[in-house]
Design goal:
The structure is a homohexamer of 315-residue chains. Chain A has 315 residues and is of the alpha/beta class. Chain A has 10 helices and 8 strands. Chain A has a single domain, classed as Ureohydrolase domain (Arginase, Chain A). Chain A has an 8-stranded parallel sheet with strand order 2-1-3-8-7-4-5-6, with helices on both faces. The radius of gyration of chain A is 18 Å and the shape is globular.
Amino acid sequence: MDNSVYGSTLQPFAGITTFMRQPATRELKDVDVAILGIPFDSATSYRSGTRFGPRKIRELSAMLWGSNQVLRVAPLDHLRVIDYGDVDVVPVDIHETFARTTATVKTILDAGATVISLGGDHSLALPLLRAHHAKFGKLAVVHFDSHGDMWDYDFVGYKYSHGTPFRRAVEEDLIDTDAYLQIGIRGSTSALDDYEMATNLGARIMTIRDAMAQGTEKIVETIRQTVGTRPIYISFDIDAVDPAYAPGTGTPEVGGFTSFQALEMVRGLAGLNSVGFDLVEVDPSFDHGDITSLLAANLVFEFLSLAALKKRAAQ
Amino acid sequence: MDNSVYGSTLQPFAGITTFMRQPATRELKDVDVAILGIPFDSATSYRSGTRFGPRKIRELSAMLWGSNQVLRVAPLDHLRVIDYGDVDVVPVDIHETFARTTATVKTILDAGATVISLGGDHSLALPLLRAHHAKFGKLAVVHFDSHGDMWDYDFVGYKYSHGTPFRRAVEEDLIDTDAYLQIGIRGSTSALDDYEMATNLGARIMTIRDAMAQGTEKIVETIRQTVGTRPIYISFDIDAVDPAYAPGTGTPEVGGFTSFQALEMVRGLAGLNSVGFDLVEVDPSFDHGDITSLLAANLVFEFLSLAALKKRAAQ
Amino acid sequence: MDNSVYGSTLQPFAGITTFMRQPATRELKDVDVAILGIPFDSATSYRSGTRFGPRKIRELSAMLWGSNQVLRVAPLDHLRVIDYGDVDVVPVDIHETFARTTATVKTILDAGATVISLGGDHSLALPLLRAHHAKFGKLAVVHFDSHGDMWDYDFVGYKYSHGTPFRRAVEEDLIDTDAYLQIGIRGSTSALDDYEMATNLGARIMTIRDAMAQGTEKIVETIRQTVGTRPIYISFDIDAVDPAYAPGTGTPEVGGFTSFQALEMVRGLAGLNSVGFDLVEVDPSFDHGDITSLLAANLVFEFLSLAALKKRAAQ
Amino acid sequence: MDNSVYGSTLQPFAGITTFMRQPATRELKDVDVAILGIPFDSATSYRSGTRFGPRKIRELSAMLWGSNQVLRVAPLDHLRVIDYGDVDVVPVDIHETFARTTATVKTILDAGATVISLGGDHSLALPLLRAHHAKFGKLAVVHFDSHGDMWDYDFVGYKYSHGTPFRRAVEEDLIDTDAYLQIGIRGSTSALDDYEMATNLGARIMTIRDAMAQGTEKIVETIRQTVGTRPIYISFDIDAVDPAYAPGTGTPEVGGFTSFQALEMVRGLAGLNSVGFDLVEVDPSFDHGDITSLLAANLVFEFLSLAALKKRAAQ
Amino acid sequence: MDNSVYGSTLQPFAGITTFMRQPATRELKDVDVAILGIPFDSATSYRSGTRFGPRKIRELSAMLWGSNQVLRVAPLDHLRVIDYGDVDVVPVDIHETFARTTATVKTILDAGATVISLGGDHSLALPLLRAHHAKFGKLAVVHFDSHGDMWDYDFVGYKYSHGTPFRRAVEEDLIDTDAYLQIGIRGSTSALDDYEMATNLGARIMTIRDAMAQGTEKIVETIRQTVGTRPIYISFDIDAVDPAYAPGTGTPEVGGFTSFQALEMVRGLAGLNSVGFDLVEVDPSFDHGDITSLLAANLVFEFLSLAALKKRAAQ
Amino acid sequence: MDNSVYGSTLQPFAGITTFMRQPATRELKDVDVAILGIPFDSATSYRSGTRFGPRKIRELSAMLWGSNQVLRVAPLDHLRVIDYGDVDVVPVDIHETFARTTATVKTILDAGATVISLGGDHSLALPLLRAHHAKFGKLAVVHFDSHGDMWDYDFVGYKYSHGTPFRRAVEEDLIDTDAYLQIGIRGSTSALDDYEMATNLGARIMTIRDAMAQGTEKIVETIRQTVGTRPIYISFDIDAVDPAYAPGTGTPEVGGFTSFQALEMVRGLAGLNSVGFDLVEVDPSFDHGDITSLLAANLVFEFLSLAALKKRAAQ
């Protein structure tokens, strides 16, 4: 396939911004990984604007040169990757948006490809988990975030928002609650027993204080022991990272991870049975110098590397 | 009433940011005008972020010194104004948001006060018109905008969005189509017969080219002749103004009015029977130096001046 | 052709950012217009950064809805448009960049398509004129700019920079000096006889003061009388427009056109024999709220409309 | 008290921005804590603009959900908090501003409430210490900062500026110099013996290098041992934190604390006899994505939590 | 004098930023014009930050190429210009700052040079007028502004601020009230009789509505007739210009002049007996793309051109 | 020498922005250190804009108060420092720019002064190394960076760009490959064997992971052992630091050093035989709150301190 129109032979400042210059197409034959944007931001409790996340992450992905020195793999050597474009979200209808998201993801999964989705707000984890559950059954979940997103509601009486997806997912039995970790949790909460509530629902919480005390190596070890060989869904809310490193997000929470720690933790998942990935809550309107989108693009590159290692190992 | 805590005796940089330092309260007795924020932005087709419009317009209103030299009136000498705070919008439910908006506005109107609402996106014109129609009957509408907002849908199959409120309002018979003017219309459209469609529905379109050719004085004259003594609802989408003067908006359209022209047109409505006002589509995320919010605050000040002149004339 | 992956059925905030959702391809068969980016900015005398112009103009083109109400044409109904991607510029070699630009443009022109190019700095007008001259012979040139770009050098001893292309083009006999107009010229100059020098070289200068005194209608009339039926190359340096309307540019010059005037002048060229177009000097690093790129996208839309009218007239 | 007009039942993006939605009032009966803004910035040696600090910290406080998970307390369950608005500062008269500040704070303290003040520049620490000294006698001071602010003058011959308050406070005998700690000190200084001078005046300096070498736990231990049961005034200059985490400040100093470290140190003061608090030098003009104001709001939330724990313990 | 270290032979992006590359020196022998910065911003009623105005205007002056095409003069061919640096202002003491300003300006005037001063806030007009009055006697004043700055006080009881300088100057009999024009006045005012008050004090007010109705040519004519051959002080508050063109200012006022109009009015003063100049209220913190500072630099270039024409005429 | 015109007695917000208020001059007699700007950015592979680096670093250097508390030295007490201004770069000719850079640096070195150069992009390291090699012979190089800059080309077939200088320098035998360290290397690379290639060429790579694992003290120890008493050239690419701390750069790479670590490493070089210094890749267009330039100015201050210690030791 000739990707030159996208700039595969050009410098990062030139060309059309598909993810890493891969072809924009909806043809799924022989595809290993499809990058999928879901520009939906109506379910946020503070800043909207994450609808521009997928577009901007694609743009910054032009700075990815292809070889992962830490994981020792050049993902595009092993994977056929496409940019599937965006889900046709409906800002005024979260239910329809969820339905279309689940349907689109199922289509891709059914064609045998892995989905890496770019949000959009975190409410999207629910339709993503639904689609992956349909394919893989109950999922171990490694969830990087500053918020547990296990509230019963953000908006009184409304079950779906960016603060509730993982509670809904547990209720819908999509998650294997023996292997559900939340990493980086912090900040003020609406109730004093928020963590207890989440724990009772089946989440294992590693607060940022736990994380800072342990260091990334030990966190990775805990994750690996917990998830074992289960199929794993990785959900990365960029606000897990400190606003100094990721200011461009909808509900920033101070006192978080550095970008180095974030990268190290994701790299630590190499060799596990990762089956799904999302990177959500990038809000370019509040970013500067594109540093948040650049970090997001690099985290997605780590996701791609995990997928490549998995495929290489399987061959 | 002691407004000192809001900063009524302070410089513009100090104090708590209610609109023009007026008291934040929901007590409506003896109130002439209630400023009402409606921070809803889920119905937009490009940039979200207008949910922060009301907050920022209030902040910039601290720069309003009180006396209108052109209209020769100091509104707060004649009107008891309160800041009613914001409608409890639900970003994921436009129907409920509309219902709450209409209900809140009705409550205020029923108490005998005039509402000046701060958006939020332009979809809100519909629930606002519903509430005003309930009180005043069919409304003449003076609609400043770059877009007619008379599409059948923005999102295929969805009747409510920020591109459709005036079509819905016509369909619901809220508007007196003998006196409905759209001023400043411009930009590319989805169909070549967009203007014809709007005209057929009852709108009288003054494109920006007409407006530039005529000048503001003649525009004002046309408005006055058209609306006569009818009860008038004024809806001002800040994107009527050129992005140079109002960059902070959701769907900017180049080639628009200057701020001077905008002010002159609103001032030109003095003496008419204005019964309702909205100022919508201010999106501070894309503003700079707060110039859009400052212009919006000044336009709201002109609205207040119109209301003051009307009350003074009635006494 | 299925453009859905680019977002042809999506809202402006979604999809992959080719120009107006048109297919990214280098296949030129049956193509009417090719959009071509040339992200070169090494020849600038003040701010670099226009290398990001093509990318950002493409992004903002998603806000173009398709129908031109002033010129009464929906360009994509008449033209098959593609996004050809970017020229492989070499920031450290202006000569090679020029050679590649001319070669690429010739390839497209030879395939029978019209080129609309997105800069990049204005030095690129020279290789663009070379390619168009090869196809069309000597060209009438309608050149919107605040600077005449007819210096002998910006950098002492260097013939090629963004201040010299039109002098070089005259020297290379690419321009029909009976029909070369510069419109919007202003600002301080390096020598008092700068205008005289340009006039002697064959340019007809309309300073911004002339332009403001005459108005756009009369300017258009002058252009039309001057160029007649000649093949016309239109070169639009965004700094012709005032920095209030187009802050995102490399060498802004205060006291310029409004966006409305810019649009009106380009529309005024309808019916003429336009054969080539460039829109240069958009520098997103210094823009805000994307207003400069939005204006540029709209000006390109006017170019497309001119091309569509020409094709429609020829049928 | 009905706080709904301030948005107590609304999402963070809605409502009028008092601190944490608490009532704006000057009624002090039964009040435990009064939040007080002091928007004075005339005493700064580099960037002015901190006059907008109080307003912006209030705005970001809407993101505080109420429960402190680390200190295990929901401050508003224990404290009656009001937003007292701002001191009527006089930018051209530092003496009068100091007098008004001291008077206002005394009024609040005399009514039995605790003051948490939001700056404004750090010169304000002097009138704040004066008022607290009048109530509590000599104060232990925990002073987080990158600068010691113990110069004899910033402006030759002028005793009052943002570089001198703590020297003046020592000279006025307001501080218990057996218990005065400066934490985070760094950066170039005007004299090589600056630290010696400060030490001679009674300050105990923990430079950032000491702090980084020790870690926050040991710093906290040192603080606790030093201050014991004395009444403590906590002064937090946001520039103690690194500009990566707190760019929005008047005299940023590179090489500072992370936001996580800042939070941990303040939390470490739980159980001590804190009697006064200030958070100063937030300059929103140089912030981005509001990350500095968000951090400031969170630090104030920790102050509130300390106050709540103290009251709970006293009951 | 060798100015190469300042970049006189370099492109605008290179070199040390004195005004137009002229030598930084305090040697006044044979100097025609001294550029003087006065970075004082403590007397402002809204945004501080104009202390960075002089620095940024100098930076943008690197874009001035030397020849004024409208006035047909290359100022540096006729004038020996130096950059005198900045007055040593004291942010906490307006009286001392005024004294130092007056003294510095007197020193320069006494050496036979003309002063062009760069603010800083508009309170500085008073010490500037004092110094010029000492040299030239009562002054005709051409005052471009959106505010008359003739209040008795901004801060109750304080005579000196950026809202009062011209009242003080009239009271001190520095201005010839037969020849004092205010041009561009607009916006809300604190009292309905503000204009009457100013008129009674001797100012002739041309509101922005008068100005827009008349056009710049007629304004210029009025100015010329009014001032005749009197010695003229020109005071240009950048907020006379609309915030679209000059967002970077302390108290922006919507509905103002375009940059083209501003330039035309200043150029219209050619041939008059201008003896002093200030350009104030540029606040780079709220600018974008440096467009305000660029406009300011161009206006100062027009001032220089006026001075050059005067000297040429005198020879 | 009287530096008052540059503001040596003024606050940081005032005065003309030479580096640390030192005299702008090209007179080299008795000079110890010359600060030299090289505003060239045509050799960058992503963002241009570093041409404004020297100017902005100078501006922020006004915040440096003179005494280095960690290294216990006030550099200006020991060194006569001048600001030599900028090299007359030619954006369209990298060869000529290199020649002029080398020539200018040689002139300064030959006069017996040390050069601290401010970039500009990293391609400049090559002409800088050439000039230093001519004076000092083969150089030990301590190279802080996220990228090794040892590619054979960025632009196919072009030997000179910001990704190649150190390969060229090795090829030209300018570097002592027994003492060439790269510190902070990270990010995706174009080939999997990039590090191997660099190692084979003679570089000793400390990746960011090595660095984070070891800590700055151990890094410093390694450097000291490696370079010994050799003449050392220190090249600091600001992108060695994480984008959170240094967003204003051309090719940011996430997961890097903190500003504290950066300062500590440079300070660790005290006592070594440093003979040359550059600080490159500061791109103010993408900075915010000037934090990157402030960090750069502080790093240059550490360079100055190293030079002062060296001179003091030699006396």
